[in-house]
Structures are given as C-alpha cells and as structure tokens.
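[recover] target loaded
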C-alpha cells in the first residue's frame, strides 16, 4: 500500500491537466490521471509511471453521469480516498449567441459545470470522513470577464466559481478546501486552434506580453493542494499575466 497522498486529476491526457498531473507526481503525490478513451488512459499511465510506478490512469467521461459514477466508484475501491481532486477537464463549443445551438450550450454546461458537480458528488463523502483534502477546480478568466462567442463557456466557468465558493463553505469545517485556479490565455491545444488574428488581439491585452505556460497553472494548483494553503478556501487564483479583468 502506497504511503503517498492520493491525487485525482481529470482531463490529464494533454495540456494543462497533463502538466498538473506531472507536477503533482513530481511533488510526491500518487497521481491518478483521467482520459476519455482507453488509448488516452494508456498514454497518461505511461507518462505518469515514468515519474513513479505507483501512478496510474483511468477512463472517465464527466459528461456521462452513469460512467462517472461507476468509474469513480472503481477509483475509490482501487486506490482509496483522494487527498487532492483537480477538476481540470473542460471543453469549448464557441459560437455567437444568436447562432449558438441548444447542443452547444448544453454540452459545455454539462461538461464544464455539471461534470465537476458529478465528480465532487462521488469524492466529497469519502473526503469528509478523511477530514482532510483539497478540491481545485480549473475555471477561466472568461468566467469573470465574459467573452463574445463564448456565452456558454463563460456561464459554465462563472457557475463553477459560484459552485466552488458554496461547496467551500459547506465543508470547510471538515478541513477540506475548495478553490479555483482561473487561467488567462495558456498555450495548449484548446487555444492553438484560434485564428492568428484573434491570438494577436489577445496578446495585446496581456501586460505580461506573452501567453502563459501550462506549468504556470500547475504551480498554482500545487500551492493550493499543499499545506501552505490550508487556510485558503472559497477563492479563485487568477494566473493570467495581469490581464485586465474589469
Ligand atoms: P485541452 O483541450 O488541451 O484539454 C482538455 C482535457 O479535458 C483533455 O484531456 C480532454 O480529454 C478532457 N476532457 C474533455 N471533455 C471531457 C469529458 N467529458 N470528460 C473527461 N475529460 C474530458 O484544454 P486545456 O487548455 O488544457 O484546458 C484545461 C482546462 O483549463 C479546461 O477546464 C479549460 O477550460 C481551462 N482553461 C484553459 C485555458 C487555456 O488558455 N488553455 C484558459 C482558461 C481555462
């Protein structure tokens, strides 16, 4: 049986989630990363096991209530109760409001907001018994500023922050913190697909004059996961190079 503290990181197949999983693994957690397919999970497993053989991966689709429930039941049976849960998985389905379909709205709310609710539903009860833990939800600057073409995404991320503050208040007395990390514009596959002109326009709004790196989000998550952040709960840490949030 591993002596390490257990961490679950959703959406660890690439981007920010992969960087968080690898950072927590290097910090000495036993990390279980998730991916949406068997082949994705195999690649997460291989990457995390290179850091330590105790790490592992599983298939999780947070958009599917039944699959999430059964995968996380299996997680609890196989690995135990997590000390750290990072809800990183997320999607975009951008469109201007008048063109946005019910499906585009629903998919983003179902994944980015309800998906986190589902993961927390499975994890909070055992964590309450453990009387220790940190839940870290990956939000976005768009949850604060809004963004034309992303009404669904902005609503989900703003909702995620309200959800996190509420859950934080419910479980603070059991020594479990719930916080958000809100990235600005980070170089990943999610942002790579944006047109060059849009990237240039975004760059012009960043006082730091560069896009963020995934490791910079992982650093904020590692801080919130650790003992130095025990008295921080219900908060959002913005990691965005000083972007104006007015
Ligand atoms: P990405 O698209 O590179 O990775 C997203 C991850 O989520 C992938 O591993 C994917 O498999 C997983 N995922 C998608 N749908 C899922 C589902 N239904 N169930 C489980 N996993 C699912 O994105 P990224 O840029 O690394 O973003 C990670 C998080 O950071 C997201 O929540 C995103 O909203 C947020 N974020 C990103 C940026 C940025 O600039 N990249 C900015 C602000 C916020």
């Amino acid at each position: 049986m591993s002596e390490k503290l257990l961490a679950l990181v959703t959406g660890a197949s690439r981007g920010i989630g992969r960087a968080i999983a690898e950072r927590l693994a290097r910090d000495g957690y036993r990390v279980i990363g998730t991916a949406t397919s068997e082949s994705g999970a195999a690649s997460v497993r291989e990457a995390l096991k290179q850091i330590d053989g105790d790490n592992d991966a599983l298939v999780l689709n947070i958009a599917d209530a039944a699959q999430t429930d059964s995968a996380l039941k299996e997680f609890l049976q196989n690995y135990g109760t997590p000390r750290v849960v990072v809800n990183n998985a997320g999607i975009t389905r951008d469109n201007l409001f008048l063109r946005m379909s019910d499906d585009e709205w629903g998919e983003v709310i179902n994944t980015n907001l309800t998906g986190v609710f589902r993961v927390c539903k499975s994890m909070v009860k055992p964590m309450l018994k453990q009387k220790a833990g940190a839940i870290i939800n990956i939000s976005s600057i768009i949850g604060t500023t809004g963004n034309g073409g992303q009404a669904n995404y902005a609503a989900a991320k703003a909702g995620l922050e309200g959800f996190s503050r509420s859950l934080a208040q419910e479980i603070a007395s059991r020594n479990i913190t719930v916080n958000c990390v809100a990235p600005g514009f980070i170089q990943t596959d999610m942002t790579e697909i944006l047109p060059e002109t849009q990237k240039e326009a975004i760059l012009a709004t960043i006082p730091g004059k560069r896009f963020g790196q995934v490791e910079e989000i992982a650093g904020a998550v590692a801080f919130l996961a650790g003992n130095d952040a025990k008295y921080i709960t219900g908060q959002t840490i913005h990691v965005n190079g000083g972007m104006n949030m007015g």
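[recover] notes: The chain has one domain: 6-237.
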